[in-house]
Structure formats: structure tokens, C-alpha cells
Amino acid sequence: MSADIVRIAEQVVLIESARIYVAGMGPTDLTSRIVVSGHLTAAKALLTQIANAFATGGADDIVRTADQAEIIEAVRVYAANNAPVDATNVSWLVGHLMDAEALLVKLVAMFKEPATT
């Protein structure tokens, strides 16, 4: 049981990390391989951590909305198919950065903070 509590806490922390990442997204120099590669590496690392934290079993038996379950599965698939970053091709970097950041935006939207009254 305490392992489940630790995993749930890790999931909460990672969702908050995704919120912080998404809130910090802004204009990016899409012509700079170094800048885009750095953003992509950070986004991929965060998605991989989230996929690992939401691994099946144990605490993942929590009842979630269908949208939440769908986005968790999409993150798992993304992390499983995670190719190494090709830092020589800026077009490839931009496309993969868009995919990774779109997934993070969807994740944050599905796990939005509960409204307070």
C-alpha cells in the first residue's frame, strides 16, 4: 500500500511538472537545432518519466475518466516508440517537438486542477 501512495505522489508531481513545462512554453527559435533539440530532449524526458510513473498495475487501478486513460495510453505509446533525437535535422526536430508538446498540452488539459469554490 505504501508503494501505491509513493507512486500516486510521483504521478501528482509529474503532472505538476507537465503543467509547469506547458505554462513555460513560448516562442522558440525553430531555426536553431540547438534550441529545438534542447526543448525536445526535455519534453521527451518528461513524457518518459510520466509513462513510467503511470505504468500499469497497483496505483494505476485508480478510476479515471476515459479521456485521462486515453492520454495516459498515448504517453505510454509515445515513450515506447521514443527514437533518439536526430540533432542534425531541424525539420525532424521541429516535427517531433510539436508532437511531444501537443501531448503534454493534452495531458495537462485532462488532469486540470479541480475548481475551488
Highlighted features:
0% strand; mainly alpha; 117 residues; single chain
Beta-strand portion reads under 5%
Low-confidence stretches: none
Distance between the termini: 32 Å
Helix and strand composition category: mainly alpha
Number of strands: 0
Amount of helix: 55-70%
Summed up, the domain count is 1
Describe the fold and architecture.
By secondary structure, the chain is an all-alpha fold. The protein has one domain (2-110). The protein is built from four helices and no strands. The relative contact order is 0.18.
Q: Can you lay out the helices and strands and say which pair or pack?
A:
Blueprint: H1 2-23, H2 33-53, H3 66-80, H4 90-110
Helix pairs in contact: 1-2, 1-4, 2-3, 2-4, 3-4
In short:
The chain has helices spanning 2-23, 33-53, 66-80, 90-110.
